[in-house]
Amino acid sequence: MKTKNYKLRINNLKAEIGNREIIKGISLKISSGEIHAIMGPNGSGKSTFAQILMGNPAYASKSGEVEIGSKNILHLKPEERAREGLFLAFQNPLSIPGVSVANFLKTAYQSLHSPKTKDQRLKTNANPALSVWDFNEKLVKDADYLSLPREFLKRSVNEDFSGGEKKKLEMLQALVLKPKFAIFDEIDTGLDIDALKVVAQGIVRLQKEGAGLLIITHYSRLLKFVRPDFIHILMDGKIVKSGGSELAALLEKKGYAAIKSH
């Protein structure tokens, strides 16, 4: 079932770290069911942009707006932004020894989707959360979809995971948590072709379910399996060019120098 039609609006966003301006006025609009890709050279601000959208306190937002629907979420904490429907798949996710993947995801799901008060539960006619049985059934189906074995769900989060396993767990989180908007920060880095296809399959499923998607990547290889509606080139903290698949083709042939000359 698709989600409602939402919009993620980013308007003239500026941010700094240590009094140095990193993001220099980015404006972007992503609708439900759209895939946007941001590409750019190292040091252009791509990962910083993702962290600012999710509310990393290490970065100070100077000005601008980040809205989901009509609500500006720029002043909210990361966990509050998540409850509003924003999700970030980390480039380098941390390990959590002693916490199983299954328990981690169930706790996260309950935190995001359970009605918080008795009045809310009565109003929505919803249970506080999925039963353990129902959730586990859903989790196993989503893991199977990503070709993850059942034993994977019993392992501690990211502990002794390969690079591909970490990226697949980020995708599993997105499938389970069902955000309105998902940001994937270089989820294709370090993946072999088989793992890349699995991750791409997850992105396409999220799109079909109605999520708005922002893919941050250095390379065009993921975009051969995922067809973005828009590609944006980020350089020096600004979007310098937007277009369609022709931009990825141009980059593959001539590199970012070609963008500077256009």
Automatic annotation (TrEMBL):
Metal-binding as UniProt keyword: no
Keyword Nucleotide-binding: yes
Positions of the ABC transporter domain: 8-261
Pfam families in the record: ABC_tran
Signal peptide: none
Protein source organism: Candidatus Gottesmanbacteria bacterium RIFCSPHIGHO2_01_FULL_39_10
Protein name (Swiss-Prot/TrEMBL): Fe-S cluster assembly ATPase SufC
Domain of life: Bacteria
PROSITE patterns assigned: ABC_TRANSPORTER_1 (PS00211), ABC_TRANSPORTER_2 (PS50893)
Keywords: ATP-binding, Nucleotide-binding
Family, per entry: Belongs to the ABC transporter superfamily. Ycf16 family.
Gene Ontology MF, one: ATP hydrolysis activity
